[in-house]
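A protein record pairs a chain with a discrete description of its three-dimensional fold. The following entry can be read in just this way.
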Amino acid sequence: MTQRWLKARQTKYVAYVSIYIVVIVAVASVANVLANRYNKTYDTTANKRYTLSDQTAKIAKGLKQDATITYYDSSTRFDQAKDLLDRYANLSTKIHVVYVDPDKTPLLARDAGITNYGTAIVQIGAKKENATAVTEEGITGAFIRDLKSTVRTVCFVTGNGERQIDDTDRAGISSFKDLVAKDNYATKSIGLLEKAEVPAECTAVAIAGPTKDYVQPEVDAIKKYVENGGHALILLDPPLQVGQTNVSNNDALAAMVAGWGVTLNKDMVLDLNPVGQLAGLGPQVPLVTSYETHAIVDEMKGKATGFPMTRSMAVDNTGKTTVNKLFSSSDSSLATPDLHSASVKTNDPRNKKGPVILAAAGTYDTGKPDSQGRFVVFGGSTWVANSFINFNGNPDLAVNTVNWLSADEDLISIRPKDQDDRHVTMTTAQLSLVRLWSQFLLPLAIVLTGAAVWWRRR
């Protein structure tokens, strides 16, 4: 009887269905567990609108302790931030997201000092920082401020015609100041003429395109600072003498960096690559798309940078310094020593064929443990001016340089950027044409086609 029951067709069907159900439930359970544990998405938008930046991912993966993002808003508006905050939680198991409704838990909101809806606070350990906005830029900035407990100050030297951090005109570098502020750097202007000494509060010193010669005491102050373990960013423009543009040779500063292994040439680099012309750039703006191996530029692969009115340089190690070139101009470039003419003379026999080095970074051995001088030299300063710093990869290169000088290599990456504006702009005539086609002609064509099919079948 038992054997007959086991061999019955109905029994086999029941067994098969039971096995199928068990397999399906098991597969669904495993898929559900994996989906909860490994939340993976694929961003198909052209500008990666729904993907967090490399810098954010780098910071999240480098967390040594748990971090909590607390979002304070009305519970009916939690969804406004959920998509972004979930992306943070998916980066690392150490990141946790908490949603708090100040109306339902007013004591919690009051304890956190919440006065406005839509506020996010990032807490790592005992330290809390308010996000400036519920955006990637604002929240990642809060992470950085949590992680960097000490105040870091970039001091910009003034007094010799340098670009100014408070100048919002085209030639100023207020945008550069704003960029480094997002990585939690303070900035200030210093003068070395009254007191030839770099203040102790300066994490790094920047010399941004002086047009006048530095006097020897100023140069000696910078030299002493670096050789005692300080960090300097030096941007020296070509000594152009064209029209009202008169840039001094600054031989004393050039001699200082030459003593560190960076020899600045008295020339200007021209790039004859037609790609730059297609981008609306002239030959005085060399484009760079390939980089050497160095912490400053390792994350720049695939990014283009531009350097208007820049000079070339040669690099070599010395007994105290180790110098690395960061990048060079293209094969279609040349360096001209003619700094007195506004015209481009490609056939000048004195021209040097590219590629030529445009930037270098080096370290100075102070002989003291855990105290290494650092310096970065660029052959021009226009690339960080307000008029050009937002060109493609220039913002990342500028802040990466400050990160390396300040020994903040963990921050070096590609930063959050504003989303592309993809609105379609049309004239009144074009808008009328689109309206005519979409509201009248296309519907009319569909109706006529349907009528013709009906008539033919009839």
Remarks:
- The two ends are 68 Å apart (CA to CA).
- The longest strand covers residues 357-368.
- Residues 54-147 form a domain with the Glutaredoxin fold (CATH 3.40.30.10).
- The CA atoms of residues 101 and 137 lie 23 Å apart.
